[in-house]
Amino acid sequence: MLQLKSFTFNPFMENTYVLYDETKEAVIFDPGCYEKKEQEILHSFILAEGLKVKYLINTHCHIDHVLGNSFVKKKYNVPLLIHQNEVIVLKSVSAYASNYGFPAYDESEADQFIDENDQIKFGNTILEIKFVPGHAPGHLIFYHQDTNICIAGDTLFQGSIGRTDLPGGDHQTLLSKIKSEMFTLPEDMTVYPGHGPETSVGTEKEYNPFVGKRARF
Predict the structure, then answer these.
(1) What is the pTM of this model?
(2) What is the CATH number of the domain that holds 39?
(3) Average pLDDT, stretch 144-166?
């Protein structure tokens, strides 16, 4: 059975997720671990659970979601998977990382491109993918039907949506994609966002002020 462990790292309070099943194979999503103590927290969990990391995946490549990419790639000798549209987003991080207080940021490169027609397979688990741009040009979400888990990155939050004023963002695209892609998922599916607490598809369809039935914006 698929299991999920979340960590909150860096000053942006970014959520990093580890998914694993009974085979002990695992994937790491959006490692925000920049400080050594944060990296140790993540690694201690991997060791304690006896996990074998198979993939590193970025839902998108804004700085807060990629600070630990290099650490994870080197520590576990795994490939980094992103959408091709995120290449320029990832490459640009090194140019501004020090301005955000991360002078020791270590640049990483993608090893494999993925999109909505692909699947992520590890252990006995298969994750499906949806393409939900708007917050970032190549933003992907990942979901598992059997356990009703969705790794949503910065698309949909509890009571909010991802910001769209960054380069490559588009507000109307994000609104449209949340409705056409995320809101077609089961209403009882748990949404694990890139920041803040988890929510559900049904709750956001009803109450989200940006895209729900009672939208105010």
Answers:
(1) 0.97
(2) 3.60.15.10
(3) 97
